[in-house]
Amino acid sequence: MIRNFVKFYKPHIKLFAIDMFCAFVVALCDLFYPVIAKNIINDYVPNQNIRLFIIWAVVLFAIYIIKAFLNFVVQYWGHIVGVRMQADMRQELFAHLQKLPFSFFDENQTGTVMSRMVNDLFEVSELAHHGPENLFLSLIILVGSFIMLAQINLGLTCITFLILPFMIIFAFKSRKQMTDAFTATRVETAAINANIETAIAGIRVSRAYTADEYESRKFSKANEKLKSARYSAYKAMGIFNSGMGLFMDMLYLIILVAGGLFFFYGRINAGEFAAYLLYITMFLKPVNKLVAFYEQFQEGMSGFKRFSEIMAMEEEVEPEKDGNTENAPLKGHIRFDKVSFSYQNSDAKEGIPPVISNLTLDIPQGRTLALVGPSGSGKTTLCHLIPRFYDVDSGTITIDGIDITEMTRTSLRKNIGIVAQDVFLFNGTIKENILYGKLNATDEEIVEAAKKANIHDYIMTLEDGYDTQVGDRGIKLSGGQKQRISIARIFLKNPPILILDEATSALDNATEMLIQKSLEELGKGRTAIIVAHRLSTIKNADEIIVLTSEGVEERGTHDQLIKTGGIYSGLYQYQFKE
Questions:
Q1: Tally of CA atoms within 13 A in the half-sphere of 141 that contains its CB
Q2: Do 405 and 322 touch, CB atoms closer than 8 A?
């Protein structure tokens, strides 16, 4: 994992090298001060050498000016390195998320993924900047101060460094506890983010059902878990910090007592003792930095571990691009040949019963196929298999005789347009949302698509027209308006294959009639698959298939199925009995 972390330094190695060089010079500047102080106390002041006193005072002043500039470089540009690395990781993670299979998003909450992308990576960026810098500075000052201290008095220095092994043993013993505590904190932070995201997205539902107290209790449980995890993390940190603080205080006490005895017995003079105390103060600084590095390392690496977990997940496997099928538009002849599919849960120990079992189905080019049946019979799942949102367990799906697994998902999905019941609009303008159908479309093409979807006239009544903001998930628009914008997307995309998954079931009758005209216009000359509960919308389909948990129960035209008096006929009579 460390090797994977280090690779993110590579694009910014020059800036990182400048940062470390400046940190190195700052460390050298710190090492000079006690030497100069010793000479001033032992030589320049007792001998009243005012000239050298002033010269070295000026030298110290110059060193401090240089040190201030270098500290600015370290603080500013060092953080820039961390920010850039964080941005690189976030970009890489986002790109990876775009290629993960839909099963990942079925099993992971949005807030949890957001937490890994934002909160965790912030801690990683802090480690990326401060970690190497603190470690490098600490080692330089520790080695430098040891050399300087040994030159002053080797015996006293050996006594000083005897306490170091005990500090290291203590640090390693408390490492696992801190690692576990910070990892648990990350998990609970992600969980509470997911809770907040869900609660805000469903605020209208909770208010409508007066469930605000229930949501508050649910949030309170998640909040308590996070609080408990934080307690454990800070307890581990408190033990670590207080233990390390005790070691450092004892070190200072030992030096004060031992140094005083050395001074009493004439083995060290006043200037050397003063310089020694200054170096010990300096010696404690890198120890503090090492403590800070250790804490930061635990937080940063626990965040990077969670980042790596997602990055290690396998992306959707794509076949090699074939120029014959990659750019050529499909005609739309779809065939299912003995297809079986079940939703696989990564946590399940045993297989889940298939949603679709041994299905064979042929949809000729340009024909309209309607799917009806009870919930859970696999209608929507069948629609999701065509654009390869999920891969089949067995059997094959072909379009124009080509196995869809031999096409890249991009080339396949360019030929498919989907209008679902639950329309998703991005937070932006009406124009930006229609543009999803064809990102390089002209304004004229956008307007033409909107006219075909019967939404243009409404858009022109708005103050900002096509530049009107739709709000989060299109909250500023009605259900029918959102649906027509989604239909405009498809008109703009102009695909040969159309999937309508209960596209009008959530609308009132008047709006449904208006949108139905748009859908009929949209379906002309295309292979269309329509999932519907309202049977009035599919009377004119070329073929109607009744799906149940047992598979295909009935198939035929509307008139044929009515005459047979089977499941479809019963559903139709029930809907229109009045």
A1: 28
A2: no
Residue type, 138: S
What count of other Cβ atoms lies within 10 Å of the Cβ of residue 69? Answer: 13
3-state class of 70 per DSSP? helix
| pLDDT at res. 335 | 92
Taking residue 54's Cβ as centre, other Cβ atoms within 10 Å add up to 11
CA distance 529 to 499: 5
pLDDT number for residue 492: 87
CB 542 within 8 A of CB 529: no
Q: How far apart are CA 237 and CA 244, in angstroms?
A: 10
Structure tokens at 361: 């189905």
CA 94/CA 187 separation, integer angstroms: 20
3-state secondary structure 435-464: HHHCCCCCHHHHHHHHHHCCCHHHHHHCCC
> Which residue has tokens 């009579």?
573
Measured CA to CA, the distance from residue 328 to residue 305 in angstroms comes to: 42
What is the DSSP track for 239-262?
HHHHHHHHHHHHHHHHHHHHHHHH
Exposure string for 395-427, b = 16+ CB within 10 A, e = fewer: bebbbbebebbebbbebbbbbbbbbbbebebee
Q: How many other C-beta atoms lie within 10 A of the C-beta of residue 392?
A: 20
Specify the DSSP class assigned to residue 7: G
* C-alpha span between 413 and 382 (Å, rounded): 15
Count of residues making up the chain: 578
Q: Give the separation between CA 186 and CA 485, rounded to whole angstroms.
A: 39
Strand ranges (E), 429-560: 497-501, 527-531, 543-548, 551-556
pLDDT for the residue numbered 348: 47
Q: Please, what are the averages of pLDDT over each run of 10 residues along the chain (578 residues)? A: 77 86 82 73 77 83 87 85 84 83 73 72 76 78 75 77 76 71 75 73 66 78 83 81 78 79 78 72 70 73 79 74 62 90 62 78 89 82 88 89 87 85 81 87 90 86 88 78 85 87 67 70 82 79 84 85 84 72
